[in-house]
Write a structure and sequence with these properties.
3 domains; five-stranded antiparallel beta sheet; 16 helices; hydrolase; Herpes Virus-1; elongated; 23 strands; EC 3.4.19.12
């Protein structure tokens, strides 16, 4: 595409050109409503050969559709001297005099506005949703394979990422972030107001990345600008060596958080008082209760978190004995068949009381002296997206290895047993006996799983992502393939992303 613009566009513009261009984009490029999709499926045929399958362009000077690959649109331009046409697949403007796709600021703005309207109509901004075509559309689309993706199996948002040299650690996290519903809604609605140079703002680059993912293009995207910004703002990740996907996730969230603005238009570095989109989605509150063993006084602190790192059996850190079955496991749809460790087991271990011992005495505010104590972690505030990091890579002075222990994780997860409020109820003798007693507000649905294959020294990252309500796809850099739910739940699991089923609004 020519970045300098086209001198022939100005000669084409006349009274009413904006409305005419909007109609082309609305009805034949980014068609969003049932009416315009029907019109598109019915009308978009080459007027020269009647083909649907060839790459069609629409003349900007008259009502004429024709193939680009078969040169029918070229013949029309030459005979009629109509030198501008719109690519009906990607929306680009082609000039037959320049012999290239050209850029015009006004026309680009119109195209973007109509694209956003179409996305809104298609339900891109709704949680795990898809829109369904009418019966009339189904009949028309059945005869046009090029448009069959406009169904409940719509694959918009699925796009591979080119590996730029051991960058699978970045690609797998990008896939998880671009399929995070609320983050997707934020970026596709252009709500980011940048105060930095766009060339150095990671939020601007992520916004552009979302536009690329949801543009409808299927060719793999090359995330070279994202990689450059990561190297610039997180220098410990620079270079072509393989990096840790979890480390990249935290670094990316940190930079995005620093480059975002909160609702008051002020940039903040305090996660406790930030309302930027990153903290709205990913930040939870972890409560730490330290109890004196002498006076039983409790000291409580609450710290923000973006993810929860969980120890696994097989690590050098002792993993407490597991009890088969149990109320919590049943609630979360997990069993202990064959003694398999579950995600619930890991969370129960994470939130169990821990005796700190004589070597870690604290000064008790009640006793006014150093005493032994116990410490217990619980969830004070749950994030919209809960990310669980299974600690598979063990690094110590004597040991560097990968822990491949299989951990069973559920499709739906109830976090109520691990809440600070549940602990208080148990201490007050209010025991919950059944799943019905648990609050549905704390239920989550799995939507992305990052896996690592190989060893600590040589490995590869892939991601399973959830499309709509019940479809799963495996993202392996540039290659995306359909996956079954069994493949997802049987995978080893390194990072597990869960989305809250019910959202709270203030």
């Amino acid at each position: 595409m020519s970045p300098a613009g086209c001198p022939h566009v100005g000669g084409w513009k006349a009274d009413g050109w904006r409305q005419n261009l909007r109609l082309i984009y609305r009805c034949f490029v980014w068609s969003g409503s049932a009416e315009t999709r029907t019109r598109k499926a019915k009308s978009c045929v080459c007027h020269a050969c009647g083909a649907h399958l060839s790459r069609l362009h629409s003349c900007l000077s008259c009502v004429f559709f024709a193939c680009f690959a078969k040169k029918h649109i070229h013949e029309h331009a030459r005979s009629k001297r109509h030198h501008l046409a719109v690519d009906l697949l990607y929306g680009g403007i082609y000039c037959f005099l320049c012999q290239d796709y050209v850029y015009d600021k006004e026309m680009e703005q119109i195209a973007k506005e109509e694209q956003k309207k179409a996305w809104k109509m298609q339900g891109v901004g709704e949680k795990f949703s898809s829109w369904e075509p009418s019966k009339r559309e189904v009949e028309l689309l059945r005869h046009n394979p090029k448009r069959r993706r406009i169904t409940t199996n719509c694959t918009i948002g699925l796009r591979g990422l080119i590996n730029l040299g051991n960058t699978c650690f970045m690609n797998c996290i990008v896939q998880a972030l671009t399929h995070t519903p609320l983050l997707r809604d934020f970026f596709l609605s252009d709500r980011h107001k940048c105060e930095m140079a766009s060339s150095s703002c990671l939020v601007c680059e992520m916004s552009q990345l979302f536009q690329e993912f949801y543009s409808g293009r299927r060719s793999p995207h090359v995330p070279f600008r994202l990689l450059h910004l990561v190297w610039t703002h997180a220098r410990h990740l620079a270079g072509y060596e393989q990096q840790d996907a979890h480390e990249f996730l935290i670094a990316a969230l940190d930079v995005l958080h620093r480059h975002c603005r909160d609702d008051d238009g002020k940039r903040t570095s305090n996660p406790n008082h930030c309302t930027c989109i990153i903290d709205q989605i990913f930040t939870g509150g972890l409560q730490s209760d330290v109890t004196c063993q002498v006076c039983h006084g409790v000291s409580t602190t609450i710290d923000p978190f973006w993810d929860i790192s969980l120890d696994l059996p097989g690590s050098s850190t002792p993993f407490w004995p597991l009890s088969p079955g149990g109320e919590v496991s049943v609630l979360n749809g997990e069993g202990h068949g064959g003694g398999a460790t579950t995600l619930t087991d890991c969370l129960r271990r994470f939130t169990r009381p821990e005796h700190l011992g004589s070597s870690a005495k604290i000064k008790c505010s009640g006793c006014h002296s150093y005493q032994e104590s116990t410490k217990q972690l619980t969830m004070k505030k749950l994030p919209v997206v809960a990310c669980f990091h299974l600690k598979r890579f063990e690094h110590s002075a004597k040991l560097r290895r990968k822990i491949s222990t299989y951990v069973s994780f559920p499709l739906e997860l109830d976090m109520t047993p691990f809440m600070a409020s549940s602990k208080e109820k148990r201490m007050n003798g209010q025991h919950q006996q059944s799943a019905d007693a648990f609050c549905s507000d704390n239920r989550y649905s799995l939507f992305a799983v990052v896996n690592h294959q190989g060893t600590l020294e040589s490995g590869h990252y892939t991601t399973f992502i959830r499309q709509h309500k019940d479809q799963w796809f495996k993202c392996d850099d540039a290659v995306i393939t359909k996956a079954s739910l069994k493949e997802v739940l049987d995978s080893e699991g390194y990072l597990l992303f869960y989305h809250k089923q019910l959202l709270e609004y203030e």
